[in-house]
């Protein structure tokens, strides 16, 4: 069973009230951008309860999933993934966009070849891993093992 929404809430953090993300974008819930960079937070006078944020995030994941269906390399990789491994690819697409995930050509090819250890190393040897090292380590461990053990006690 997928744990994607719980993983995204953990990785993105969850705040009911709008906040500025690290790049200055007004953001709410678990990393959902709601306005242009450097817009004043006073423009956003609402909160998003967790239940609503989870539904919103699920809709965004569904949109990414539809976009992923048009990417041959991503689909070849997903065909070899169990739920835990697939969740890592969906999480990566959520974080960096489908085009960003598609840029992991060698990693996706290794997943399609069921070389999950090699794919995990490919994930860790990337700009993404240097930018978000803890998230990348957890995702790589899930890719390597095919289990959610890297998230035990976190979600």
Which structural category do the helix and sheet elements fall into?
A: mainly alpha
- Radius of gyration using CA atoms only: 16 Å
Shape: elongated
Count of discrete alpha- or pi-helical segments spanning 4 or more residues: 8
CATH-defined fold name: Lysozyme
The proportion of strand residues reads 5-15%
The total strand number stands at: 3
Please mark out the parts with pLDDT under 50 across 5 or more consecutive residues, or reply none: none
Give the helix level as a range of percent: 55-70%
CATH architecture: Orthogonal Bundle
The topology string of helices and strands comes to HEEEHHHHHHH
End-to-end C-alpha gap: 14 Å
Number of domains: 1
What is the CATH C-level name? Mainly Alpha
Short description:
The protein has helices spanning 4-12, 50-68, 72-78, 83-102, 105-112, 116-124, 127-131, 133-145; strands spanning 15-20, 26-29, 32-33.
Describe how the helices and strands are arranged.
Blueprint: H1 4-12, E1 15-20, E2 26-29, E3 32-33, H2 50-68, H3 72-78, H4 83-102, H5 105-112, H6 116-124, H7 127-131, H8 133-145
Antiparallel strand pairs: 1-2, 2-3
Which key terms come to mind for this protein?
mainly alpha; Lysozyme; three-stranded antiparallel beta sheet; elongated
Describe this protein's structure.
It is built from eight helices and three strands. The protein is elongated and about 50 Å long. Helix 5 packs antiparallel against helix 6 and helix 6 runs antiparallel to helix 8. The two termini are 14 Å apart. With 155 residues, it is mainly α. The protein has one domain: Lysozyme. Strands 1-2-3 form a three-stranded antiparallel beta sheet. Helices cover 58% and strands 8% of the residues.
